[in-house]
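[Automated response] Your request has been received and processed.

Submitted sequence:
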Amino acid sequence: MSAADRARGALYGLAIGDALGMPTQLLSRRQITARWGPLLTGFEPAPPGHPIAAGLPAGAVTDDTEQAVLLARMLVKNRGVPGADDWAAALIGWELDMAERGSLDLLGPSTKRALTAVLAGTPPAEAGRHGDTNGAAMRITPVGIAFPATPPPTSNADTGDLSRLVDHTVTASLVTHNTSVALAGAAAVAAAVSAGVGGASVAGATETGIAAARLASHRGHWIAGADVAARIRWAAGLAEAAAPDQAAELIGTLVGTSLATQESVPAAFAVLSAIPDDPWRACLLAASLGGDTDTIAAMAGAIAGACHGQSAFPPHAIAIIDAHGFALPALADALLALR
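Generated structure:
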């Protein structure tokens, strides 16, 4: 399998997971099973009265894909991670565009708070000092494609490609999520994606993600919160070899599926531990958990896609994402050229 197929798989996996989780986001596990059964079987329209996605058709994507594509395009344009000022301006412009399109799925709480501060005069480099939710992790996949993540030789080392990837993750995230917890979660996803693009299995990508989360936990502004690296390892072990129904209950009950980084990022890795060899089924499981399903499925899909490649997803799912016009193959190729 080529690196190009893996890079494309990461972007398609993110978008496919996002679209599968679109109708179930913010719903409880009980509501999901009552409407669709224990596990979704494919793309579904948002149910009537949905608080964010009402009226969206099956296969529609959310802010996870939109912001990841925005970041990817800026990486390609700049031939590197955009600075805080440029990234803040891009996100502000994106929300205005989405609002004009009538979308209710706009900026998450940390990103909204940070950009409001920027508009009020706070320097972009300081705006994200309280951002602790998963907005950075949900959109960081392009950084993982663009930069390698060879782990340092020892768990205590702070040199090598992995440390540089953490640096890039921090630069791409600090304007909205400059906290130890959020940066650890974003670094875990970026590193796992990067490891997958480099040829790692899901298990290997998970280990690289854990190592990156440890490094990133010492970056940004410290806030109280569970250690992301430790929770990824625990959550992956909890769900390992569990049947999908059992995994869904374990993840929802014990790991958690909220917007909190220390819940949703470990939940994505737990999904991959339960279903490591089938990215499509992993996305379906993530979309069936309840809670922040679009983001959890987007992260799980990106990592699984990086490890297994675009060809691991059903052709009809690829076609549904292609219909959005994001030109993901060309975007993935351009990101890979930066690597």
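Summary generated for your ticket: The CA atoms of residues 47 and 54 lie 6 Å apart. The radius of gyration is 18 Å.
If you did not submit this request, please reply to this message.
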